[in-house]
Amino acid sequence: MRFLISLGFLILSASVAEAAPTFFPALSGDGAAPVLTVYSSLDEPLARPMIDGFQKANPDVAVRYEDMLTGEIYDRIVKETDAGEKTADFAFSSAMDLQVKLSNDGYAQRSDLPMSGRWPAWANWRNTAYALTFEPAVFVYHKPSFRHEQPPATRAEFVDYLKRKGNAVFGRIGTYDIERSGVGFLFMSRDQEQFGDIWTVIRTMGSAGVKLYSTSQAILERISDGRFVLGYNILGSYAADWASRHPDVGIVLPKDYTVVMSRIGLVPQAAAAPELGRRYLEFFMSKEGQTIMARELQIPAVSPEVAGENTANTMREMLGGQLKPVPVSPGLMVYLDQVKRARLIARWNEMLRLQ
Q: CA 276, CA 121: separation in Å to the nearest integer?
């Protein structure tokens, strides 16, 4: 588990409040230096090591960093582009579906880069949208509650545990509210594709009085103090940070399959300085940039050139086919269809009401 515990400090974009832009002057001291504009759902303090690395390699470039919610990134790029205005030079977001929609609808431009041909096929959509991180969905558990037995390691074991324990665990299970949590909805939609019996899992959680939350923190707080015994489908990078600071929090990567989500980077079609956006994307994909991602931002790296802890390479060596990355493809847009989305949410609520 060392690689997972080392992930740390990832803040879910869904809980980030929009902040004022942060300006990083060019290291060259040139007050008239070209400015790279970035729209990102990653907190600026977390992004700073990547910006520092980029500017050391490009001392002639200033950076304007705008930290905002994922939906705001999408809406702003579309609004500015449709108005004939210039927009960000680089967009980095955990809303995989919205980033792919930007690409599919012509709001992103092609970026043919040195690493494009070597990037994993699942992580590259037509050289326009690139997955740049590798973040698993996990089970979390309260360690003292499992002193005498192993925590569930598959969804079948999860169901069996809830049925065996009955009233002892009623109301002590947590997961995301898929109506309010984008990452929760993404994980649920992948569950439906990967696991034919997923509705038995949801129905059993409903019978066990599952509590729903829009953020990981609310669930992990309750796991750490023993109010909850289990959390289902929690973003592993955030869970690992919590576990590193709260020794009673344990993590399991489900053995039947582990869904992996990614943050996607792209250069918008209406970028004011697309060459700077591509330069930043190229740095993100380089060995140096991905190493900074893994070691300093503490977010798992995708690049096949980067090994060691906190990388897709290491996870694949340890877990192999158990890992199921969400492909960067138009398939992500299926549940942006409001009818399909409503149907999935309606069935989810129906299963939970059976308690």
A: 25
Residue type, 35: V
Question: Which pLDDT band holds residue 14 (cuts at 50, 70, 90)?
Answer: very low
Question: CB of 23 within 8 A of CB of 64?
Answer: yes
CA distance 76 to 54: 25
Q: Could you tell me the end-to-end alpha-carbon distance of the chain, in angstroms, rounded to an integer?
A: 35
d(CA 229, CA 198): 20
C-beta separation of 15 from 70 below 8 A: no
H-helix or E-strand spanning residue 173? strand 173-176
**Structure tokens that stand for 334 in this block:** 């299926």
Structural element, H or E, at residue 196: none
- Overall average pLDDT of the 315-334 stretch: 92
Tens digits of residue pLDDT in 96-150: 999 999 999 999 999 999 999 999 999 999 999 999 999 999 999 999 999 999 9
- 232-279 pLDDT, tens digit each: 999 887 888 889 899 999 999 999 999 999 999 999 999 999 999 999
pLDDT, tens digit, 9 for 90 and up, residues 32-75: 999 999 999 888 988 999 999 999 999 999 999 999 888 899 99
For tokens 């699942």, name the residue. Answer: 122
Rounded distance between C-alpha atoms, residue 28 and residue 329, angstroms: 39
Helices (H), the chain: 2-5, 44-57, 70-82, 96-104, 155-165, 182-194, 198-207, 216-224, 236-245, 274-285, 287-295, 312-319, 338-353
Instruction: Give the Cα separation of 101 and 56 in Å (integer).
Output: 33
**One-character DSSP codes across 52-76:** HHHHHH-TT-EEEEEE--HHHHHHH
- Other Cβ atoms closer than 10 A to 314: 20
Give the C-alpha separation, 199 to 320, whole Å. 26
pTM for this entry: 0.84
